[in-house]
Amino acid sequence: MAFGSSIAEDADLLVYDLLGSLAHAAGLVRAGLLTPSEGRRLARGLRQILRDAHQGRFRLDPALEDVHMNVEATLTTRLGPVGEKLHTGRSRNDQVATDLALYLRDALTMIQGEVLAVAAALLEQASAPGGKETVPASTHLQGAQRVHRAQLLQVHASRLLADAGRMGDLRSRISEYSPLGAGAVAGSSLPLDRAYTARLLGFRAPHPNSVEATSDRDPGAEALFLLALLGAHASGLAEELVLGSTPQFARVELDDAFVTTSSLMPHKRNPDLAELVRAEAGPFLGLLVAYLTVLKGLPLAYNRDLQRVKPLLLEGVRRGRATCRVLAPMIQSARFVPGPSDRGEGEATFSVELVDALVLRGIPFREAHGRVARLLAQVPAGSLVRSYLTTERLRQAFPELGPTGWKVPTPLDEPELRRTRGGSAWKEVRRDHQRLQRELGRQRRELAIAQRRWKTLVQRLGGGVRARSKAAKGF
Ligand code: ARG
C-alpha cells in the first residue's frame, strides 16, 4: 500500500485537484447530469475542503492511495450519496493530468517571478558605482580584456531573463489545452461540455486528443529542463561569487548572512550558501534525467509509471524556488569591490588594441600580432607592463606608429577602446542594460496579468474561499 501510494507528493496537488473538481462539478450541472442543487452541495463540500486545506487541516490518508480518492471519500462522508456522483464522466487519468497542468501553470508563475528578482538584483548592481569599475574579462580563466564589471553582471542577468521568459512561454503553452473530460483514455459517452470546463479552468480549449491528454507528461519534462538550465546558470553565477570572494580575486564581499565561519578557524568567512547554489545544478540535472527515463518506452496511454514522475517535478520546483530565493538577496547585499589584481597595471589586456593600431597603419595582422607578442615577452619580470610600455618604447618598437605614437590605455579607460555594437565601451554596456531593463519590465507585466488571471480563477471556482497556492513553498 505504501509503495503504491502517491500521498506524499499529492499534498502539493490538493488545491489544484479541488479547483479541477469544482469545474468538473459545474460541468456536470451544465450537462444535466447533476441538478443545480446537487451541484451547489458538491461545490460547498469542495470549498469546505479548500478551506480546510488552506488552514492545513486536511489530512491525506495513505490508505486511500492518492489525493483524488481522499477528496472523494471525504466528500461522500460529509455529504452522503451526492459525493458519489462527482466522479461521473471522469477518470483519475484526466483528473491527475488536469491537476498537473494547473499546478505547473501556478508553479511557473511563481518561479518566473523569483527568477526575475535575481535578474533585477543583478541589473541593479550593474547600475551601481561598482558596475562601472573595470575588471579583466577572462577566457580560460586567464585575464583576457578589461571590461566594465556591469557587462559581466549583465550576462548573468540576460541568461536569467531568458530562463524566466521561457518559463512564461511554457506556462502559456500549458494553458492551451485542458485534459479534463478526456476520461480514462477515450473520452465519454456522456454529453460533457469540455470547452466549458476548459474555460472555467483558464485553458483556451479542450485537449484535441483524449489519448494524448491523459498520458502527456511532456510539460513537466520541459519544466525540469528549464530548471536544469536555470541550475546551470545559477551554478556559474555562484562559482563566480565563490571565486570572487577568495583573497586572490577579492572582488566581492558577500554579506554576513550568506557566509559561515569555520568551527575551528575563527578568521574564516566561507561562502557556503553560494557553494550550495553551485551544487544545485547536479540535483536539477538528476531530476530531469530521472523524469525522462521514467517516460522512456511507455506504451500509450496512461500507465501507473506516470505517478512516479510527480515527485521529481515537485522537487525540481521546490529546489528552483529555493535557489532563487537565496540568490536574489545574496546578490542584492553583495559588495562588489576592486580586487588586488584589478588595478590592472601588470596585465597586457590592451594587447589587441596595440595590434589593431598597427593594422590601421597598414601592417598585416599576423605580422603585427607577432611583433606585439615579441615586445611583450621582453617586459622584465616584476615590472608593470603598462608603465614599462612608455610612448617612447612603443615608438622604438613600432616606428610605423608615427610621431604621435600610441598610448597605452589606463585600466579604467581600456574598455572604451572597443566601441563595436555590444563591445566593452560604457555606452554599449548601458545600451544592453536598457534592453535588459525593458525585457524585465515586459516580463513583469506579463507576470502580473498571469497572476491576476489565476487569482480571479481561484476566486470564482473557490467561491471566495482563499486558496493559497501550493506550488511548493521552497525549502
Ligand atoms: N495516483 C495516480 C497518479 O498519480 C492517479 C491516477 C491513477 N489512475 C489509475 N488508473 N490507477 O498517476
- Helix count, DSSP H or I runs of 4 or more residues: 17
CATH superfamily of the largest domain: Fumarase/aspartase (Central domain)
Q: What is the CATH-assigned architecture of the largest domain? A: Up-down Bundle
Low-confidence stretches: none
CATH topology name of the largest domain, in short, is Fumarase C, Chain A, domain 2
- Major sheet: size, sense and barrel closure? 2 strands, antiparallel
Helix-strand pattern, N to C?
A: HHHHHHEEHEHEHHEHHEHHHHH
Spatial shape: elongated
Walk me through what this model shows.
By secondary structure, this protein is mainly alpha-helical. The protein has 3 domains: 7-85, Fumarase/aspartase (N-terminal domain) (Fumarase C, Chain B, domain 1); 92-342 and 429-460, Fumarase C, Chain A, domain 2, CATH 1.20.200.10; 345-410, Orthogonal Bundle (Ribonucleotide Reductase Protein R1, domain 1). The chain has 17 helices and 6 strands. The strands form 3 sheets. It has a two-stranded antiparallel ribbon. It has a two-stranded parallel sheet with strand order 3-4. Helix 10 runs parallel beside helix 12 and helix 11 (272-295) runs antiparallel to helix 12. The protein binds arginine.
